[in-house]
Every structure is written in structure tokens, then in C-alpha cells.
Design brief:
Elements lengths: L2 H11 L12 E4 L8 E5 L4 H10 L3 E4 L17 H11 L3 E4 L2 H5 L4 H8 L3 E8 L10 E13 H11 L6 E3 L5 E11 L4 H6 L4 E5 L14 E4 L9 H12 L4 E4 L11
């Protein structure tokens, strides 16, 4: 079986047309015409991940975050993190492949699983995709209803428990009842106004800067759970998609790319 059969299937499930304009989903480097020997799924590519793939005999590494964006590197040399990863992968005839905003946006992708983790129901897309015919079920972020209305503090404790968090940064009105919740995995500060227009009582995302918290003007709770914390489970989605479809090669989840954030 050729590697392109795997990547074609993944692109049927999570179409590349759903990626954002700035993004660079799909093949990062390598020849997809070669036979698959094994696949390793990771969140972030690194030299350690490439070494892990080599040790298990895999020649396909699938990450969530891409190595390069459209306005990224102009040349590839082994003098920085990205160049070292690409050069090592090519030396060993490996294919590097990324699924970023396409799997964030796609039905059954990152934001749908995020909504499931908070047990939201009546879920709809927060920012519908602009791809032709894709807007109804695909796009960035989701909006849904909690299992029951909660006070602000009860809701924050609920999110902390459901997402296995140590810390949440937040700003909101303690007297407000939370029922309708908007979410966006990764960095979603640019969608605060969309969450307000959607009638959300709370917006949960990552990478919220200081001044972003003022955008809701106390009309909506804004909770920053962290970029990684809102999408670490995406590699599980990719791994599950591979295992459900393919049984003729070994697929594994990387043990080398877990981000350890320490708190005092």
C-alpha cells in the first residue's frame, strides 16, 4: 500500500479545502508514492519524534501543527528546528504530513470532540467554512448548550474537570448564569465577537491576550484554557481514523511530543 492511499483517505475525512488561507496542511515533505511501512501520529514534529518513528520502522509521520506555514521558510537548512526535522526526514525517505485547521474545522474533528468533552448539545458551527458546500457542518469553533445552567464559578470548575486542567485564565461577570457556550480549540481570540453574536454566555479557547478580555464588555465570560490544552486530543482523532480504516501497517501515537507545562 502506498502512502498516498493513507493521505487520500485522510483528506476525504478532513478535506484540505477546509484549511485557513494562512495554513499549510497536507504533505510537508517526502514522496507519497513509496510503500507505507508504518505511521506515527504526533501533535508537534521534532527531531525526537523523527527518531521515534525511525526506531519503530515508520516512514510516515502525521502531525497536527505543520512545520511550515505559507509565509514561512524561504530556504531549508539544518540550522534551525524546522530545517533539522525536514533534513533528517528526507535523509531517511520519510513523509511528513500535517492536519491543522482542516481537522479543526471538519465535522468529527477537533472542535466537535472539544464540544463532546464539555457534553454540549444542540451544537452548531461558530464560524462556518467558506469552502463551497461545506458551511453547514464544517468551520472553526462550535456553539452549544450545557447539560444544565451553571453559575460562572461552577462552570469554570466544570471545564477544569472535563478538560483535566490545572489553570484557567478568565474574565466575566460572576452573577451571570452560563448555559450557551462557544468553544474553539487552539488560539481563538479572533472569534470573541463571533461568540458574542452567537449569543454565548461563555467562550472557551486559548491564546487570549490581556486586551482581548475586554472585548466582551462583561456580556460574556471569556475563559483561556491554553492553546495545547484545547486540542491535545487531536492526535487521538487521527490515530482512530487510521485504525478504523487500515489494518495492514502499524500506527502509533508519539510518546515524545507531550508538552509539559509546570505550575508553581
Amino acid at each position: 500500500m502506498k502512502i498516498k492511499e493513507i493521505t487520500n483517505y485522510l483528506e476525504e475525512r478532513f478535506p484540505l479545502c477546509l484549511q485557513e488561507d494562512f495554513d499549510n496542511c497536507g504533505v510537508q515533505c517526502g514522496d507519497v508514492e513509496q510503500e507505507i511501512r508504518g505511521a506515527l501520529v504526533c501533535f508537534e514534529m521534532s527531531e525526537k519524534v523523527i527518531d521515534e518513528a525511525l526506531a519503530m520502522g515508520a516512514n510516515l509521520v502525521i502531525s497536527h501543527h505543520p512545520l511550515m506555514l505559507k509565509r514561512g521558510l524561504c530556504k531549508i537548512e539544518p540550522t534551525n528546528r524546522v530545517g533539522k526535522v525536514i533534513c533528517k526526514a528526507l535523509r531517511h525517505d520519510m513523509v511528513l504530513y500535517s492536519m491543522h485547521t482542516n481537522i479543526d474545522s471538519a465535522e468529527g474533528g477537533g472542535n466537535d470532540v472539544f464540544a463532546e468533552k464539555l457534553d454540549l448539545h444542540d451544537v452548531r458551527v461558530l464560524v462556518p467554512s467558506e469552502a463551497d458546500g461545506m458551511a453547514e457542518r464544517n468551520g472553526l469553533g462550535r456553539v452549544g448548550k450545557l447539560p444544565r445552567p451553571m453559575s460562572m464559578m461552577d462552570f469554570l470548575r466544570y471545564v477544569k474537570e472535563q478538560m483535566a486542567l490545572q489553570v484557567i485564565r478568565y474574565h466575566g461577570n460572576p452573577a451571570k448564569t452560563i448555559e450557551t457556550v462557544a468553544i474553539c480549540g487552539g488560539g481563538g481570540a479572533s472569534f470573541i465577537e463571533d461568540a458574542l453574536r452567537a449569543g454565548a454566555d461563555a467562550y472557551v479557547s486559548g491564546d487570549i491576550k490581556y486586551h482581548d478580555f475586554f472585548k466582551a464588555e462583561n456580556e460574556m465570560l471569556i475563559a483561556d484554557i491554553g492553546h495545547y490544552e484545547g486540542e491535545f486530543f487531536i492526535k487521538e482523532i487521527i490515530y482512530k481514523a487510521l485504525k478504523e480504516k487500515f489494518t495492514t501497517f502499524a500506527a502509533s501515537i508519539s510518546k515524545m511530543d507531550n508538552l509539559e507545562v509546570l505550575y508553581l
